[in-house]
Design brief:
InterPro entries: F-box-like_dom_sf (IPR036047). By secondary structure, the chain is mainly alpha-helical. Helices cover about 40% and strands about 5% of the residues. It has 2 domains: about 120 residues, no CATH class; about 120 residues, no CATH class. Helix 12 links the parallel strand 3 and strand 4.
Length: about 325
């Protein structure tokens, strides 16, 4: 299915009617959100008729099948409109949509982002928003783009209060969580369709969403405080207990970022690894390595043992006379 050809046919349709006034605009936006070729074929046949009424009926049916709420797309005309002359579509579409997203609401695209996020039910559909405008993701602040995604995918994060402030980079947090869910799903051998972008759709969490944050907070209160002059660049959302250990008790391996994590117990070790750009786990109170120390086995002697001759009691006897 040629998505570009389908968009052009949709834009050639006349203006919408009362059922769905912005059917053309919505149709252009959701072309990249649909994986089912049969649903795209339905839209193509409706667009070939040249009737906006038939296209609206087909579009409403497709949106219901895909679980998209049509009311969430009904934005004011000055905020969402793709009425571009056909001869200028190819050269101006990206620039037009880019200006539209960033100027609407005066909030750097936040208003539009919140409205679009509210009507996308699947994780794999969020990155496809960048297909509308290639520079949207790059220009939006990462937390503005990825924090609403994480809160929608894992609602439990919204119930842990100010602990979510520990996450400084929501893009890395979301990537780490989705990787863990994807790996868990492949281990379970689930047969549900895999998403094209992130490879996972509506997978239930395999652990408490706040587990990593709670462990970070606990370590901060118990020997996990950084010395003066140091500052966290990124607090990993993957719990330390979920990271693989190696033969070296002071070196772990993270399968998410594919990097070693070094357990540091002194400020000198911390400074050394920070200068090299390594990930570290603070163990100033010596609890991490202490929990990994194996007890020494007690020696077990096997065989016959001769008891020593008992010492004589009392004064020594005089030598016998012969």
């Amino acid at each position: 299915m040629d998505a570009e050809a389908l968009r052009e046919k949709i834009l050639r349709l006349p203006g919408g009617n009362k059922k769905l006034p912005q059917a053309r605009e919505i149709g252009v936006l959701i072309v990249d959100m649909i994986d089912d070729e049969d649903q795209l074929e339905v839209l193509l046949k409706a667009a070939d008729t040249g009737s906006i009424a038939e296209f609206e009926e087909a579009l409403i049916g497709v949106m219901e099948e895909e679980g998209l709420d049509k009311d969430a797309f009904e934005l004011p005309e000055d905020e969402m409109s793709l009425q571009i002359p056909l001869d200028e579509q190819r050269k101006s579409r990206l620039n037009f949509v880019q200006d539209l997203l960033f100027n609407a609401g005066g909030g750097g695209g936040t208003l539009i982002a919140e409205k679009v996020f509210s009507c996308l039910p699947f994780v794999c559909e969020f990155p496809r928003l960048t297909l509308v405008c290639k520079t949207w993701e790059a220009r939006l602040k990462e937390n503005v783009f990825w924090k609403p995604i994480a809160l929608k995918v894992w609602p439990g994060l919204g119930r842990i209060g100010n602990k979510i402030d520990l996450v400084k980079n929501w893009k890395l947090f979301t990537a780490a969580r989705l990787t863990k869910l994807k790996n868990a799903k492949s281990r379970r051998g689930a047969g549900k369709k895999m998403g094209a972008m992130f490879g996972v759709q509506m997978v239930p969490p395999i652990e408490n969403c706040a587990m990593g944050l709670e462990l970070v907070e606990k370590k901060r209160q118990n020997g996990g405080r950084l010395p003066d002059g140091f500052k966290w660049d990124f607090k990993c959302p993957v719990a330390l207990s979920k990271i693989s250990t190696t033969r070296d008790h002071k070196v772990d391996y993270c399968s998410v970022c594919k990097q070693n994590v070094y357990v540091v117990q002194t400020e000198e070790e911390l400074k050394s690894h920070v200068s090299k750009g390594n990930c570290v786990a603070l163990d100033f109170d010596k609890t991490i390595l202490a929990s990994r120390q194996r007890p020494r086995p007690m020696p077990i002697l096997r065989g016959r043992v001769r008891l020593p001759r008992p010492a004589p009691i009392g004064p020594p006897r005089p030598p016998a006379l012969r």
